[in-house]
Amino acid sequence: MTHLLRRTAPRLSSILIFLAFVVLGATFVFPFYYMFINAFKSMPEYYKSTFALPEHFNWVNFATMISQFHIQINMLNSLFISVSTVVLTAALGLVASYVFAKRPFRGSNVIYLVIIFSMFMPSQVTLIPLYFLFSRLNLINTPYSVIISFLAASIPSTIMLLTAYFKGIPNEICEAAIIDGSGFFGIIRNVIYPMGKPAIAVNATFVFLRTWNDFLTPLVLLTKRETQTVVVALSALVSRYQSDPPYQMAGLAIATIPAVVMYLFFQRYLVEGVNAGSIK
Amino acid sequence: MSDRKRKELAISLLAIAPVVLVLLGFRAYPLGSVIYNSLTNWDGLFRHDFIGFKNFLRMFHTDYFWLTLGNCFIMFINVPIQVLIGLVVSLLLYEKTLGWRFFRSLYYLPQIVSAVIVGYLFATFFSYGGPVNGILKAVGASHLAIEWLGNRLTGIGVVISALVWINIGWQGVLMLGGLSAINPSVFEAARMDGANFFQRTFFVMLPMIGRVIEYSFIYSVAWTFTGLFPFIYSITNGGPGYDTTTLDFLVYQKAFREDAGLGQACALAVILLAIVCVLTVIQRKISNRANEWSE
């Protein structure tokens, strides 16, 4: 409120701050700018100047990416894995967090703390046994091994966020729903889910971005090109086409675009999420 | 216990059962397995005998283990740099100058791009024929145009700059959130009392967002031990030799790229886990004491 009341005339200090922001901002824009302009160049054009704008935008690098590298298959793999993880995490997290927040029983707090504690365990630690477990289950090179790994890794932070949020829902509303005859799932459907939507959305945004961008787990569990996520397939592409930088840049650009689009739509949730703590 | 109570408890238990089962099967079991296997000579195929702490002892006698561990500690430099820059950015954003929302979004952008992609961008920029050397040559400093990723010092430097670059926005948003939670009347009171920008910053704002800074430190330090894999993979690939390898990269290297024996890779994973646990505990102790002093 106060910053609305305090009318500031443009002072020298705010002009200096603005200029500092522009300079810092340039370092954030430039790598992306460089990536996009070079993705549209032919090899001779690239070697003439890497900084200049392309003389004409040619889409051939992107076209080859689809017709020969079949990046769209990897794109669909990524989408299937991320969306499945988001949905499963939300469903399991919603139900469990409701219990931890509103129906505590003897020992539930201990279970809750153990779950939260497992958040600190890095995925490198569990990956070796997981690889052998999934190969015994014949799940290597299927999306399911990655979805299960992501689900297990995402549940602790999800439960922490949702439980904290659900605790803020007044007990009276839950009790009123019980008196109205709602059962366990009735309360979740009529009270917890509608009132908890903001936290569920924040969490879904983070889980989606984290799983879309994750590298180590799918790199280890998916070894066949046609099963890989877009980020993993791309790393193979980048090392295979060392001699064709514009093609590499087109690949990087293709993998970046979906995340940026997500960002434009869900930015609000990300800012809220960072401040709710613990998620990155 | 009444029938109704018992039924309610049964429903609650059923509701958390899927979560508990997933975590037992795919977090707890692998954790137990990695600890047990760190004590064996497992090679993934035939040998699987208990050999005690031999994997650990063998690891402690190699040069690359200590080199790798040293690299991890050098990488720490990224934490104070990104916290400091993030803090300055958030203090300036708090002044709410023209376009601050736009800049906040812009600085956060690298966070939503995959770390591998950021890594490849940095690798391209600092490659021998890349734009950084291009600029150096253009301004007549061609003697500075070196193989950035070809030696330990500059290779680690490039990785650290990528870590700082990707995290400034996260730090900025986090700390701006902390600043925004301060009651504005505190800020106004300091201003009325004639405190200038620096006095307000050091005596009002910093103490009040101490908790946030501490959280960001703890998180970033642990992250430096566990989140570097995609950066190392894409920027230097750990090389030359083990010169820029970090512990989390070494676990992958030993387990999935070299025939070093999975027992050894598991031992490395256990060391990594132990370090992360110890760091978290130390950080908590330090910050608890700091809080007692400030009270």
General description of the model:
The complex is a heterodimer of chains A (280) and B (295). Helices cover 77% and strands 0% of the residues of chain A. Chain A has 280 residues and is an all-alpha fold. Chain A has two domains: 8-58, no CATH class; 69-276, MetI-like (MetI-like fold), CATH 1.10.3720. The longest helix of chain A is centred in the N-terminal third of the chain and has 32 residues, at 71-102. Chain A is globular, with a radius of gyration of 24 Å. The model of chain A has no long low-confidence stretch (mean pLDDT 87). Chain B is mainly α. Chain B is built from 14 helices and no strands. Chain B has helices spanning 3-37, 54-60, 63-75, 78-94, 100-108, 115-125, 131-138, 152-180, 184-192, 197-208, 210-226, 229-235, 247-257, 262-294. In chain B, helix 4 runs parallel beside helix 8, helix 5 crosses helix 8 (152-180) and helix 6 (115-125) packs across helix 8. Chain B is flat and about 75 Å long. Chains A and B meet through helix 2, helix 5, helix 6, helix 7 and helix 8 of A and helix 1, helix 5, helix 6, helix 8 and helix 9 of B.
